[in-house]
Specification:
This protein has about 675 residues and is an alpha/beta fold. It is globular, with a radius of gyration of 25 Å. Helix 6 crosses helix 25. It has 3 domains: about 170 residues, Substrate Binding Domain Of Dnak, Chain:A, Domain 2 (Up-down Bundle); about 150 residues, Rossmann fold; about 220 residues, 3-Layer(aba) Sandwich (Rossmann fold). The strands form 5 sheets. Strands 8-7-6-9-10-11 form a 6-stranded parallel beta sheet, with helices on both faces. Bound molecules: FE(4)-NI(1)-S(5) cluster. FE(4)-NI(1)-S(5) cluster binds next to helix 14, helix 21 and helix 25.
Length: about 675
C-alpha cells in the first residue's frame, strides 16, 4: 500500500497541450520545444495545479492565525439569511470585501511606487544631479504644471514673463513628490476629472488625501477586527483606486513623458520572431522604464555596436516583455517580444543572451528556465531580487545609470559566444502602429486644423462609431493565452466599437495584426472601417503600458469636454474590459475605471462570487453611486456583447440610438471627415 502511494507521487507531471494553451503559433512552438528539452513552463504548471475554489471566490480569510477561515457557498445556494461566519464572526461579505480592497492596495501600491521612483529620478534630473537623465518635453511640462499649482509665468515689474523652465521642472518634481505623502489637502490631479465626477467623489467623501495614506489605511482597516462593513471597506478601496488612476499612475505617465518624450505613433514589429540569430538579443522586462531608457540609448552607440561585433555578432537586438516593452516601444520603436505569458518562452529560443528585469509581473521561474540555457538573468531593482543563485543583481542608480546599462550590454555581448548550436527562433512577427496618446488621438481624429475630440464625438453621434472600449490588462495561465482578448476585441470592432488598449492586451493585439490601419477593412463593421480608412488609424489604438491607463481616463475626459455626449464620463457610450486579467494591479485599474463612471467587465473569475451581497454592491449599487459598475463575463463573445449592450443603453439615453440606422456616407460627409 505504502509503495503504491509512493508510485503515485512519483508520477510524471502532465504536460500542457501547446495548441490548447495559446492562439499564438510562435508560443505554441516554444511550449512544445520547452517540453522536448525538459524545461518546465507556466503552461505545464497550470495543468498540474488547480486553483483553490474557495480562494477564487474571495471567501477565504487569512488575516489572522486563527484561520484561514473558509466560507464556501452552500451547494444549493443561500436561502434566507447568509449565516456563514469566520471564527471572529466576519461574514462572507466582510471577508470578500477585505480581500478585494487588499488587492486594490497591492495594485495601487505597485503603480504608485513605480510613479514615486520616476518622480525621484525626475527630481534628480530637474536639479541636474545626474547627467544621464534630462527633461526632454518641456511643452508637456508646461501643459501639466498648472494641475499641481506650478506657475508657468512670473510677474516682473507688472509684466507677465515666461518662467525659467528648469525652475518649473524642479517645483513640479517637488510638488509631485508631495502627492504621495503630504499631511493635508487632497490629491491635486483629482480636479483633472470632469467637474461632475469630481463633485460626485466629493459628495461620496472619496477624494484621496494623498496616495500612500489610502493604501496604508486599507492595510489597517483590513487587519483583524477593524472595518467590518463591506460598503465602508469599498469606500476606502475607492479612495485608494482613485489615488492610483488619477494619482500615482497619472503622475508616472506625465513624468515619464516629460523626461523621455511624449509618444507619437510609430511603426514596429512584434512577437518572439523579432529576436535575431546573428545579433546579441537583450530582452528588457518589467515596468519602470528608467533603466531600460539607458539601455536603449547605450545600445545605439557606435562603441557598443563595435563591441557586439568584436564578439562575433552583427549587432544588438533589443526586445521587450510586458510593460517595459510597451514603454520602450511607444517612445523608441523597440519591438515587444511578447506579453506576460511569453516571458519564459523567449528564453526557450536559446537565443536570449540577457534578460534584464526590473519590477512587477516577473515570474520567479525565469531563473529556472535561464539555468537550462546560457541566458544571463539580471535583476536591477533593490526591491525585486530572486533567491536562485544563477541570477545576477546589478542595482540601478540614477547617478550611474548609463554605466550600469553599458555593463549589462557588455555582459550580454560577452555571452553571445556561449549560445550553443541549439537555437530556434520562431518566424512569426507582426507589424504594428503603436504610440498613441491623448494628444495624438486629438490630432488624428481631429486633424491639425480642428485638433480636438469633436470629430471623434461627431462620428459617435452619427453612428459610424458605435462607442469606445478600453480593453486592457494581462494574460492568465488559467485561460488560453491571448484568446479571450483577441476574440473579444474582434467582436467589438466588428460591431463598430473603437478600442483603446494598453498593457499585455496591447501586445496580444499587435501579435494578431490588429494594430494596423489595414486591419480595419478585414475586421471592422462598415462604419468604423470607414473612419479608420479615412483618417488612417488602426481600429485598436495602443496607448502604452498599464500606468498609461491614465491616458484612457484623460481621453474619456476630453470626449466629455468636446461636447455632444453628455456631461460626465458615465454618460459616454464607452466601457472598460480586462478579458484575461490576473494581477492585483488589474483590480485597482478596474476599480478606478468603475468609480470614474465606466462599466467595466472582467473575464475569468472575480473574487467576489462567493459573497453575493457584496458582489451586488459593486456590480449593481455602484451604478447609482458613481455611474460605473463591475461585471464579470467569461465567454469572450458574450463579454463583447455585454459591452455593446451597455454602449447601446448609453446611446439611447443620449438620444443618438437612431443615428446608427444610417451609416452610409456621401461625398460631402467624407470631405468633412
Ligand atoms: Ni498590467 Fe503590465 Fe501585463 Fe498585466 Fe503585468 S505586464 S502592468 S499587470 S501582466 S498587463
Amino acid at each position: 500500500m505504502a509503495e503504491e502511494k509512493k508510485a503515485k507521487v512519483a508520477k510524471a507531471p502532465k504536460l500542457a497541450d501547446p495548441i490548447a494553451s495559446t492562439i499564438d503559433i510562435a508560443s505554441q512552438e516554444m511550449i512544445a520545444r520547452a517540453q522536448t528539452l525538459g524545461v518546465e513552463t507556466i503552461f505545464d504548471r497550470a495543468v498540474n495545479m488547480k486553483p483553490c475554489a474557495i480562494g477564487m471566490q474571495g471567501i477565504c480569510c487569512k488575516n489572522c492565525s486563527m484561520g484561514p477561515c473558509r466560507l464556501p457557498l452552500p451547494k444549493d445556494g443561500i436561502e434566507g439569511e447568509d449565516t456563514r461566519k469566520g471564527l471572529c464572526g466576519a461574514t462572507a461579505n466582510t471577508i470578500a470585501a477585505r480581500n478585494f480592497v487588499r488587492m486594490i492596495a497591492g495594485g495601487a501600491a505597485a503603480h504608485s511606487d513605480h510613479g514615486r521612483s520616476v518622480a525621484e529620478v525626475f527630481l534628480s534630473a530637474a536639479k541636474k544631479h545626474t547627467d544621464d537623465y534630462k527633461i526632454k518635453d518641456y511643452d508637456r511640462l508646461l501643459d501639466v504644471a498648472p494641475y499641481l499649482g506650478v506657475a508657468t509665468t512670473v510677474e516682473v515689474d507688472g509684466e507677465e514673463l515666461d518662467r525659467d523652465l528648469d525652475e518649473i521642472a524642479v517645483e513640479f518634481a517637488e510638488k509631485a513628490m508631495a502627492e504621495w505623502g503630504k499631511p493635508e489637502g487632497e490629491l491635486l490631479y483629482a480636479k483633472r476629472a470632469p467637474a461632475p465626477l469630481y463633485e460626485k467623489w466629493k459628495k461620496a467623501g472619496v477624494i484621496p488625501r494623498n496616495i500612500d495614506r489610502e493604501i496604508v489605511e486599507i492595510m489597517h482597516r483590513t487587519h483583524m477586527g477593524v472595518d467590518q462593513d463591506y460598503k465602508n471597506l469599498m469606500k476606502q478601496g475607492t479612495r485608494a483606486a482613485i489615488g492610483d488612476g488619477w494619482g500615482g499612475s497619472m503622475l508616472a505617465t506625465d513624468m515619464q513623458d516629460i523626461m523621455f518624450g511624449t509618444p507619437y505613433p510609430l511603426q514596429a514589429e512584434s512577437n518572439i520572431g523579432i529576436m535575431k540569430e546573428d545579433h546579441v538579443n537583450v530582452i528588457v522586462h518589467g515596468h519602470e522604464p528608467v533603466l531600460s531608457e539607458m539601455i536603449v540609448a547605450a545600445a545605439q552607440t557606435p562603441e557598443m555596436l563595435e563591441y557586439a561585433k568584436s564578439m562575433g555578432a552583427n549587432g544588438i537586438q533589443l526586445g521587450g516583455i510586458c510593460c517595459t516593452a510597451n514603454e520602450m516601444l511607444q517612445r523608441h520603436g523597440v519591438p515587444p517580444a511578447g506579453n506576460f505569458l511569453q516571458q519564459e518562452l523567449v528564453i526557450v529560443t536559446g537565443a536570449c543572451d540577457a534578460m534584464v528585469v526590473d519590477i512587477q509581473c516577473v515570474m520567479q521561474n525565469l531563473a529556472n528556465v535561464a539555468k537550462c540555457f546560457h541566458t544571463k538573468l539580471i535583476t536591477t531593482h533593490p526591491i525585486a531580487r530572486m533567491e536562485q543563485d544563477n541570477v545576477i543583481h546589478i542595482e540601478f542608480d540614477e547617478h550611474h545609470a548609463m554605466e550600469d546599462a553599458i555593463r549589462i550590454l557588455k555582459m550580454a555581448c560577452d555571452n553571445f559566444k556561449n549560445r550553443g548550436a541549439d537555437v530556434v527562433i520562431p518566424k512569426q512577427t507582426a507589424t504594428q502602429i503603436a504610440g498613441f496618446g491623448v494628444e495624438s488621438i486629438k490630432y488624428h481624429l481631429g486633424g491639425s486644423f480642428r485638433g480636438d475630440y469633436y470629430t471623434l464625438n461627431d462620428n459617435i453621434i452619427n453612428g459610424r462609431i458605435r462607442g469606445g472600449a478600453g480593453v486592457v490588462g494581462c494574460n492568465n495561465a488559467r485561460q488560453k493565452h491571448n484568446d479571450g482578448c483577441i476574440t473579444m476585441i474582434k467582436e467589438l470592432i466588428k460591431n463598430d466599437v473603437i478600442v483603446l488598449t494598453t498593457g499585455c492586451n496591447a501586445i496580444a493585439c499587435a501579435t494578431e495584426g490588429l494594430l494596423t490601419p489595414e486591419s480595419a477593412a478585414v475586421h471592422c463593421g462598415a462604419g468604423l472601417a470607414e473612419v479608420c480608412e479615412t483618417v488612417g488609424i488602426p481600429p485598436v489604438l495602443h496607448l502604452g503600458s498599464c500606468v498609461d491607463n491614465s491616458r484612457i481616463l484623460l481621453a474619456l475626459t476630453e470626449m466629455v469636454k468636446a461636447g455632444g455626449l453628455g456631461n460626465d464620463i458615465c454618460d459616454l457610450p464607452a466601457a472598460g474590459s480586462a478579458p484575461e486579467w490576473m494581477s492585483e494591479k488589474a483590480i485597482s485599474i478596474g476599480h478606478y475605471f468603475v468609480v470614474s463612471g465606466v462599466y467595466t467587465v472582467f473575464g475569468g473569475m472575480l473574487p467576489t462570487t462567493g459573497a453575493p451581497v457584496f458582489q451586488n454592491h459593486i456590480f449593481k449599487e455602484y451604478e447609482d453611486k458613481y455611474g460605473g459598475m463591475w461585471d464579470m463575463v467569461v465567454d469572450p463573445i458574450e463579454h463583447a456583447h455585454a459591452i455593446i449592450a451597455h454602449i447601446d443603453k448609453k446611446r439611447k439615453a443620449l438620444g443618438i440610438d437612431k443615428a446608427r440606422d444610417r451609416v452610409m456616407m456621401d461625398f460631402a460627409a467624407r470631405q468633412a471627415l
